[in-house]
Structures are given as structure tokens and as C-alpha cells.
Amino acid sequence: MSKLDGRNVLSRSSRHRKKRTLGKMFMLLIMLVIIGVGAFAGVKMLLNGDSLASASSVREDFVVTEVAAMGSAAKDKAAPTLYNGMKRKVVYLTFDDGPNVHTPQLLDILKSNDIKGTFFMLGENAKENPEIVKRMYDEGHYPGLHSMTHDYAKLYKSGGSKNFIDEFKEAQGIVNDIIGYKPTLIRAPYGSAPQIGEEFRGDIANAGFKMWDWTIDSYDWKYPGNPGAILSQVQSQLTEDTEVVLMHDREQTTQILQQVIDYIRSEGYEFEVYNPDQHFVCNFRHDERL
Description:
By secondary structure, the protein is an alpha/beta fold. 48% of the residues lie in helices and 13% in strands.
């Protein structure tokens, strides 16, 4: 072979190596472009709220870790109940044992504050004070029931629910005769626990009644001549977003009610009256039947 022929062979071999190198570089460039397109598509789908799993389908060998997509995660997050940008807090003021000579003053205070209360009345007192019952109802308060006699032995010591239910039906009839409305919300004298068991509660529900206890006991009956102690009791117990406050138609209650209202409002609460169409469970046993 001549020197010229040798140089030609080396030249061809060198050109072949360069072509192979260029070819490899070209293929590498194509692969990088494909991977880049796949990554761009995945990011685009993620920003559009699609799952990363669907983004990976652009290339079968493009592997990603599945995470919750930003769009769907935002949709699934439930917002809390808000009122004017804040979580709504509600207090129900309730009054037992009336109507009596103190009830009109309680009604005056509630009216001046544009608050509606829930009054659990004794049947005998309602019969003796029909004008107060009428005023209460006309001004938008709820006329609840609190038995006829408030007699512990009669209501709970018989071994059954009959005396209890009979008294509440009698009180219901008296209120209906006065205002033409038959209330169904009751409050058991001395509260529903421990004296009212499961079967007893079932009998109350079957009689068509709902029953409220309370979440805050003001103990106002304990403090004649010391109304400030009533306010302290409410202040120490006011913690939940929905509170049912137990009070009574008593002189000391009329003396402190305005301050109780002012304090509750200062804590960001609104006031509501019981509404049968928006009933919620508030008994010591959390019995859904009541």
C-alpha cells in the first residue's frame, strides 16, 4: 500500500469517528429535549391542578412521586363557619321558674338590648300571670315549659315517667290556651341527670318534647343580695362557641342581667332565642332523640 493510500484510509476512519461522535451528540440532544418537554408538561399540569400522575404519562419512563395537587387540595379544605370574618359565637339566655313579679323587669332589660330570651315557665305561674305570658310571646321570646309543680318527689320518685310527662302536657295546654301556641321545648326541674334515665328520656321524646339542660349555670338562685357573684359565675364558664346560660326569674338576676349581657357581648358573642326549626341537642346525656 502506498503512503497516499494509507493517509486516505486514516482520513476515512477519522471521518467515520467524527460522524459517530456527532451522531451520539445529536441523539443525546434529542433525549434532553424530550425530557425537558416532559418536565415542562408535568409542571404545567401541576399548576393547572392536575395530578402529577397524569403529568408522568407524557413519558412512560419519566418517574415522579405522587403528591396532592395544589388545586384539588385547596378545593377539599373546608372553611370554618365565619361571621364578619370571625368564627360566630352565640349565647342563649334562658330563665326558669317564672313568670312572676320579676319577669317584666327581665323583659324590659332584654327589650332595651334587642335580645330575645328563652323562658322555661311553671304551668301554675303561667296560669296566674297570663298577661306576662302574652307579652313574652308577643315580644319574640320562646315560651318553654318547666313542669307544673317543680316537685322532685312527684316528678321522679314514682318509678316511671308518667307524672313527669303529665305535668308537662298540662303546662303545655295552659300556655296554648293563653297564646294559641303549643311549645315543645322543656327543661326538667333540677336538670335531666342523674334522675332521668334512658327509657325515661325515650318516653319524653315519644311524647313529642325536646329537652334542654344548660352549658353555663349562673347559680343566681344562690346569691340573693350578691348579684356580683352571678356575673363571676358566668365569666368563669364562658368558653365555648355556643353556650346556653341558666338563670331564673329572681330579683338578684334583674340586678345583674345588664352587666352579664355587657360582658358576654365584650367577648364577641351574639344572642339568640330558641328556634324549633333550628333545634340542636343540649342535654347532659347528649341524647339525640331530645
